[in-house]
Amino acid sequence: MNTKRGLAVTLVLIATLASGCASIRARTDVLPRKGWTVYPGAQQGVTDIDAAVNGKLPYPGWMQVLLFPAFVLDLPVGAVFDTLALPYDLYRINHPEDFAGRKRK
Fold it and tell me: How buried is residue 51: exposed, middle or buried, by Cβ count under 10 Å (0-12/13-18/19+)?
């Protein structure tokens, strides 16, 4: 019985990691285009969940069904990560000149 539970937990963790952490995706894809903000991962997580529920993800329907639980599980993890990254986010917002010269490759 414990091996089945361990396998289920492992599969859920793999699904969560495979979907990509919303906090990392928000900081690398969304924020450079839209501007820096606090709790971007939580905002991206809610956006991802909304897109999965409304069928707006650019994936087939069966994949959206698989990604929805991963997005839901990622939301609290992203909120914790965003809380830990809050000092960096606030510094980045209040001192944009320190990051103006950096270009993405």
Answer: middle
